[in-house]
Amino acid sequence: MSYNLQRLVFPLSIAVLIVSSLLFLRFGLGFNLNLTPSINGTLVRETPLNGKIEKGDYVLVCPDDNFPKINLVRSHADRGPCGGVSPLFKRVIALGGDYVEIDSTGISVNGRHIASSAPILADHANFKGVIQEGYVVLSGDHQGSLDSRYFGCLNSRYIKSGVAIIF
Question: What is the CATH code for 34-165?
């Protein structure tokens, strides 16, 4: 083996080990990096839902071509594997059977206004009524989050997994 090739073997081996470890963490163990302020966590792990979604749960939403038509090309909806955008990490704030109002003042669930939920952009959703079973209302932990203030009540089929915040 030539001297130049020998000098490359160790750094390449380390690089392959690092990439393999990262792929295992992502695809083998379900770890994911949240690079947006939508939820208060940078490292998250996907968790099974076991068929039950509850208020307060953090979830991973994966938009597809049938996702409610909103402007998913906003600066905070980066390109990714979910219908051309990155997965959305959100908190469930209402479920089927809850009375919800979504308007220019924000979101109210069962008569209780959600703090800091007023939409920033003019193209907000408008909804007033009882949520159908199988639908949810989602919120980010950040006022600038792309959430139900803009896309309204969401069919829970778009929820791909639960999310546990590591840090």
Answer: 2.10.109.10
